[in-house]
Specification:
Elements: E1 8-11, H1 13-19, E2 36-42, E3 45-52, H2 55-69, E4 75-80, E5 83-88, E6 93-95, E7 100-103, E8 105-106, E9 109-110, H3 115-133, H4 143-154
Antiparallel strand pairs: 1-2, 1-7, 2-3, 3-5, 3-6, 4-5, 8-9
Length: about 160
Amino acid sequence: MKIKTGYLYHIKDEYFDVVNDENLMQNHERGKKRPTYFTIKDKNILWFIPISSKTNKYKKIIAKKTLKYGFCNTILIDKIFDEDAAILLQNVFPTLEKYIDHAHTVNGKPARVSEKLEKIILENFQNLMKLHKRGIKVFFTDIDKLKEQMLEEIK
C-alpha cells in the first residue's frame, strides 16, 4: 500500500501494545475501528492525527483555549465528507507503515481530505512542531520518545 499525506487510515491494535502509551487515544467508538487518522508522511515516519465525530465536545475545548490564549490551533473543526469533524492535532503521534491496518475508504476508494483542509492541517502541524521544538508542551503524548521508538524499529 502506498501511503500518502492527506489520506485517511486506520491503525492496528498492535501499535498500541508496542508503544504502551496511556496518553494515546485508545477507544473503540460504537464497535468501529479506532478513530480514522489524517496522515502526514515524513520520510520513514508517519504522523497520525486522530479525527473525531464528537465535535460538540471539542468545540467547548476550543472555546476555552480561545478564551485563554486568543486562538486554538491544536484542534480544528471542519467538514470531512460533508460532516463536521474534529481534527485533533494535540493527539498526534508517530508510527510506521507496518502498523497501518487499512486505508479509510469512501465508495470503495481511498479517502482523503480536501486540498484546502490538508493545507490548513499541515500549517498547524508545522507551527505546533516549532513550538514543541522550543520546549512548549502542545501534544499529549511524548512524541520524541515514540518517534525514537519507531526509528529503533526501522534499524
